UniProtKB/TrEMBL annotation:
<keyword id="KW-0378">Hydrolase</keyword>
<keyword id="KW-0255">Endonuclease</keyword>
<dbReference type="InterPro" id="IPR041373">
    <property type="entry name" value="RT_RNaseH"/>
</dbReference>
<feature type="domain" description="Integrase zinc-binding">
    <location>
        <begin position="169"/>
        <end position="222"/>
    </location>
</feature>
<keyword id="KW-0695">RNA-directed DNA polymerase</keyword>
<dbReference type="InterPro" id="IPR050951">
    <property type="entry name" value="Retrovirus_Pol_polyprotein"/>
</dbReference>
<dbReference type="Pfam" id="PF17917">
    <property type="entry name" value="RT_RNaseH"/>
</dbReference>
<dbReference type="InterPro" id="IPR041588">
    <property type="entry name" value="Integrase_H2C2"/>
</dbReference>
<protein>
    <submittedName>
        <fullName>RNA-directed DNA polymerase (Reverse transcriptase)</fullName>
    </submittedName>
</protein>
<dbReference type="InterPro" id="IPR043502">
    <property type="entry name" value="DNA/RNA_pol_sf"/>
</dbReference>
<dbReference type="GO" id="GO:0004519">
    <property type="term" value="F:endonuclease activity"/>
</dbReference>
<dbReference type="Pfam" id="PF17921">
    <property type="entry name" value="Integrase_H2C2"/>
</dbReference>
<keyword id="KW-0808">Transferase</keyword>
<dbReference type="GO" id="GO:0003964">
    <property type="term" value="F:RNA-directed DNA polymerase activity"/>
</dbReference>
<dbReference type="GO" id="GO:0016787">
    <property type="term" value="F:hydrolase activity"/>
</dbReference>
<feature type="domain" description="Reverse transcriptase RNase H-like">
    <location>
        <begin position="3"/>
        <end position="79"/>
    </location>
</feature>
<keyword id="KW-0548">Nucleotidyltransferase</keyword>
Length: 285
């Protein structure tokens, strides 16, 4: 305090081990912690410690009985101070942090969130034939579309607002959840989880993946987490035709399986190896 006015406060929560200590020990520890905290300003000067624990007034004259108290007292060596008893009712400033009054109890809060572009979303929703087909199915049978709920003119999917996959707001949403300071240019999965917890549109996973993959900032600033590719080496020369088969990764698994069975296995038998581009190689023994 300076001119009977507090100029700074210091407070420290009690640990589990110290909660059960007596009031005297707690006040003793508070004096030690406070003096240590303001030590650079107090060392070399005489100062007064005001406390509402009357027994601490004789701290410097009484006998220290426990090892822990001796440890605390040793930390006060080198300081020139006097302990003065001051009743709690006259020393209210000392309890400003530890006995802060709580605010009034709030019984209920009612919030109503509204989309800034609500009318745009409604118009896009009404013009989307795919979403209108889902609404028509739900109106005939509420269980016809698993996960979808249509209520009060709003279509929800697993608790998330459904918007048109051609919505003009999708680029804005992708930017807000990825490229802003709040988005933090996170990776695909984190961006997808945040965005998918709010809205849903058909093909949103592919849209988010493509947006994150094409982000210029991410490409410039982030390193590749995948392992570096190995040295390019030629494939071994087969001894006979159809011994090795190479495939492109752009085809689906179903298409590859059908062509493989009809055009290769049926006519030439099972090959010794199958090479899928530069991804991996399957060997048959």
């Amino acid at each position: 305090m300076q001119e009977r006015r507090p100029i700074a406060y210091f407070s420290k929560a009690l640990g589990v081990r110290n909660v059960t200590k007596s009031a005297y020990e707690k006040e003793f520890m508070a004096v030690v912690l406070a003096i240590q905290h303001w030590g650079p300003y107090l060392i070399g000067r005489r100062f007064i410690v005001s406390t509402d624990q009357k027994s601490l007034k004789q701290l410097l004259q009484e006998r220290i009985v426990t090892a822990e108290q001796q440890n605390w007292a040793a930390k006060l060596l080198g300081f020139d101070f006097e302990i003065v008893y001051k009743p709690g009712r006259l020393n209210r400033g000392a309890d400003a942090l530890s006995r802060a009054t709580e605010g009034g109890e709030l019984c209920a809060v009612t919030t109503c969130l509204q989309w800034k572009d609500e009318e745009v979303l409604k118009e896009e929703f009404n013009q989307d034939p795919h979403l209108q087909k889902i609404v028509a199915d739900l109106q005939n049978d509420v269980n016809s579309r698993l996960g979808f709920v249509y209520k009060h003119g709003v279509l929800m999917y697993e608790g998330r607002l459904v918007i048109s996959r051609k919505s003009v707001l999708i680029p804005t949403l992708l930017k807000e959840f990825h490229a802003t300071p709040q988005g933090g240019h996170s990776g695909f999965y984190r961006t997808y989880r945040r965005l998918a917890s709010n809205v849903y549109w058909v093909g949103m996973k592919n849209a988010i993946q493509e947006y994150v993959r094409s982000c210029d900032v991410c490409q410039r600033q982030k390193y590749l987490a995948s392992s570096p590719g190995g040295l390019l080496q030629p494939l071994p020369v087969p001894d006979r035709i159809w011994e090795d088969v190479s495939m492109k990764q752009s085809y689906t698994a179903k298409t590859i399986a059908e062509v493989f069975v009809k055009e290769v296995v049926r006519l030439h038998g099972i090959p010794l190896s199958i090479v899928f581009g530069d991804i991996f190689e399957v060997l048959y023994s």
